[in-house]
Give the backbone structure.
Amino acid sequence: MAVVVSIIVKEGMFRYKYKLGKQLNSDALIVNAYEHRSDVYSSIAALIGISAAVLGGIFGIGWLEYADPVTGLLVALPVIRMAWKLGKESIHNTLDHVLHDEDTEEFRNVVQSIPEVKKLDELHAREHGHYVIIDLKISVDPHITVEQGHRIGKSVKKKLMENKNVQNVMVHINPYSESGSFKDDIDIQ
């Protein structure tokens, strides 16, 4: 009876922590939730294995006495698979991951929606854990003041950071040229 109660409680804990982990975008909570799920599998295996071994002893079926260790081995396989999957996701989230062009389309549209931006020269976005860092170069009217160019850069940054996943934006301002070529010897951060 205690094993059945354990299965129900652990499954409830898994569902609660998994849902909360997804809401908070917390890998730690999700991993902890899966620890409860592996406890559920272990408890089910223990219940089946012990029951089969006991029945084997009562009815004199010798091979059923090995049900407990066999079910333990069968449960180990999905637990190892789950550990591999979660480990792979954790490593991916820990390292910087460059977003592909199709993943940055929303950011490009935001930048290009600002009227003072004459051209989006480059946009590089990288995912670090659950947030995004964006580096971009934009071209603006070459006849405006430095202060006006700075305001445009701040406007672009502010607009991009309205996305809750964007943690930081670094904007480089270039003078716009019809030919698209400009002298870019100095990179000012």
Notes: Residues 27-59 form the longest helix (33 residues). The radius of gyration is 28 Å. Strands lie at 96-98, 119-128, 131-140, 166-175.
